[in-house]
TrEMBL record:
Name by which UniProt lists this protein: Transposase
Entry-linked NCBIfam families: transpos_ISAs1
Species in which this protein is naturally found: Vibrio cholerae
Domain Transposase IS4-like residues, every copy: 103-219
Residue ranges of every copy of the H repeat-associated protein N-terminal domain listed in the record: 10-95
Example GO biological process: DNA transposition
Lineage of the species this protein comes from: Bacteria, Pseudomonadati, Pseudomonadota, Gammaproteobacteria, Vibrionales
Signal sequence, start to end: none
GO molecular function: DNA binding; transposase activity
InterPro entries assigned: ISAs1_transpos (IPR047647), Transposase_11 (IPR002559), Transposase_11-like (IPR051698), YbfD_N (IPR032806)
Amino acid sequence: MSELINPFIHFQIIKDYRQESKVEHKLSDIILLTICGVLSGHDGWDGIIDFGNARLDFLKRYGHFEAGIPSADTLSRVMGMINPVALQRSFIAWMKDCHTLTDGEVIAIDGKTLRGSYDRSKGKGTIHIVNAFTTANGMSIGQLKVDSKSNEITAIPKLLDLLDIKGCLITIDAMGCQKKIAQKIRDKEADYLLAVKGNQGMLEQAFDDYFRMDMLQDFDGKFL
């Protein structure tokens, strides 16, 4: 069982750009609330606030929250000011403290869209995130925001660079079935299990030809 360790020491590396005299909610509290909310399945600011109000006692075990739960506008504004690289590194360092990967552990990588992140009036596009999590307990061990001019195919190798996955099995959906991604995983001394679909037509056909369904049936027509 993984133990949640206080993340404050890791969040200290993240610079707070707000005027100190006007700060009502600590930066570490805002980050903790946002991360825990997203990891609990909430992909919009309103959902994260609902989570915070429902689990305030839990959050106070690891943060301060002297002014309660911040508003959606505060969360959006402050999280938008944070250096994403510093946030990624502090989050991954925190998760390493909470959970030590074991040899052969399965890590799933997938993408998700942060609901409510699109704001046309402010010129903000939808935020897409690539997430790596352990399938044994669903704990996220790393996240990376997908660049607005890029996609998951280019973001996945960057996320892998941030993770220590030696000896693990990495699973990714068909989007990640790419030579460079497979090679990156092998370079990190891990194994991979990638889904094959129509985006790799020749490879999909090769699998269909080699692993024919009729060859998996016994003489009674039942699948082995």
